[in-house]
């Protein structure tokens, strides 16, 4: 954050000052929407929600060191009051960008955004000052909060951009116009909100490349036909990545070790180098190639990119997070979110990690799958059986029951159990697990199965 006085911020966002003793008081730290995360000298952004109203926490934020609150009404403590808090924080972020002018890198996709963002940040920060999206703060509030963490020293700003519906990326790229745009894939995430068809998802994701300037770069996944089809929607220079032979940034000689970690030869226009990822699953190759493609477009050499990927570690919780218990049980926590593509990749990665060990899958619902939801859950049940998982615990009513039925009907020998909720999953899994097991936990975030994974890991 570049230092700004409350009066300066008020002029940028069109705010009126309430209960402010010193309009020249400087804001010197980033902003936050969680009052517990406000740094001394920062701004607390009070937002309303279905269950929690940030305005109720304004006094606590000030007591914790916030200079003021960005709010939609007076709150009895120093506040910048605006009509629309979301619009105001976006205006402030855009103002900051115009003054520091970093290279803005936007990335989107149905799966893999956060892992790719974390990999890319770890490659770029070895080269120059880099700010990247924290966790998955990729929406209309999270993106400007990320921008406001940048300052005059920031050279690369890596922004994960989520799209729950058409128009979302147009809005986000308006706040932070990217010079580089990366599209990972087109899958069924948010299908319900976008019309249910992959073509509709592709239309929404392609808004990112439409926002790029002619002298920018569009990094497109050559292995995904929907992404490849976006080439005609951008003025920017195009660089293809993937395992396809036509990709300028590609992987050759892909192999996996006995811990399900992947290695490959990275090929870029500047040469070749060996990459050995410290991440679970073969699907991580595509994420690593995406990060490498961005770095290539920014002028980094293949050796520097490979060094960054080799040194990279998992940064975000709940994404194929592995915990080894003292009794030999391995918990694979992939419960941050779920859709068919990520569920498929996670199940395969866990099975590869297990080798000949006994495997248990604790699975809940995948949200936003529209009319195809029941069929897609049944598909996951069949995959559990086809991969020869020993045990399936399906959590919740509705679609998870379709998953359980499909697995039980497969005649592959999987022992299928159903439970009503997370508490039931914890109780049953704890009772069923045996020393040496590998247990894989996954569902959409609203199901709350992360609590199950954490309970099992800490047992």
Automatic annotation (TrEMBL):
Sorted UniProt keywords: ATP-binding, Cell cycle, Cell division, Cell shape, Cell wall biogenesis/degradation, Cytoplasm, Ligase, Nucleotide-binding, Peptidoglycan synthesis
Protein's name according to its UniProt entry: UDP-N-acetylmuramoyl-tripeptide--D-alanyl-D-alanine ligase
Organism: Nonomuraea helvata
Gene3D superfamilies xrefs: Mur ligase, C-terminal domain, Mur-like, catalytic domain, MurE/MurF, N-terminal domain
HAMAP family in the cross-refs: MurF (MF_02019)
UniProt xrefs under Pfam families: Mur_ligase, Mur_ligase_C, Mur_ligase_M
Annotated positions binding ATP: 109-115
Annotated metabolic or biological route of this protein: Cell wall biogenesis; peptidoglycan biosynthesis
One example GO MF annotation: UDP-N-acetylmuramoyl-tripeptide-D-alanyl-D-alanine ligase activity
Similarity-based family: Belongs to the MurCDEF family. MurF subfamily.
EC identifiers of the protein: 6.3.2.10
Domain (Mur ligase central): residue spans on this chain: 108-295
Superkingdom to which the source organism belongs: Bacteria
